[in-house]
Amino acid sequence: MRIRPVTPAELPALQDIERAAGAPFRALGMAAIAEDEPFGVDVLEGYRRQGRAWVAVGGEGRPVGYLVGEPVDGALHIVQVSVHPDFAHRRIGEALLAYAAERAREEGLTGLTLTTFAEVPWNAPYYERLGFRVLGAAELTPGLRKIRAHEAELGLDRWPRVCMRRG
Predict the structure, then answer these.
(1) How far apart are CA 46 and CA 44, in angstroms?
(2) Alpha carbon of 55 to those of 5, 22, 63, 74, 75: distances in Å?
């Protein structure tokens, strides 16, 4: 498994990965999440141009997972990390997060942050196993509060959500 910057031609494949990665949410009664459309190619291209979109590719050079992030209050905020379910349980998500952490260190950022579902097994519990911790309300930076407010506007608070940090 190799991780590298995303190419423009791979952007539609990232959307396919996101759709496939969302499907398991249906079994948890979260059909709205399963049916949520991924970022548009234009949005993904913006992350790519900023050097903030990375892809994990398999032996055939085909994308199997990806991560996009952006600086928020001195940390690299993971906007999206997804692995195609056909490639689950191979530590690809962990490798993408490690790669992002290294890029963050190179930029002088203080760690990684993300928001996620608290009770979905492959969300908050997974990130805790990788060294992330849930942030209390008093620990939320202005940027994280803004992200959480936007998520609430989108209706994501129908299920418990948390902000997490590593580093």
Answers:
(1) 5
(2) 6, 17, 6, 23, 20
Cβ contacts of residue 23 below 8 Å, gap of 6+? Answer: 34, 85
Q: What is the pTM of this model?
A: 0.95
Mean pLDDT estimate for the chain? 96
pLDDT at 59: 82
Quick check: 61 and 10 in contact, CB under 8 A? Answer: no
Mapped onto helix, strand or coil, the DSSP state of residue 116 is: strand
Phi, psi of 114, rounded to the nearest 5 degrees: -160, 165
What does 23-82 look like in DSSP terms, one character per residue?
GGGGGGT-HHHHHPPPPPHHHHHHHHHTT-EEEEE-TTS-EEEEEEEEEETTEEEEEEEE
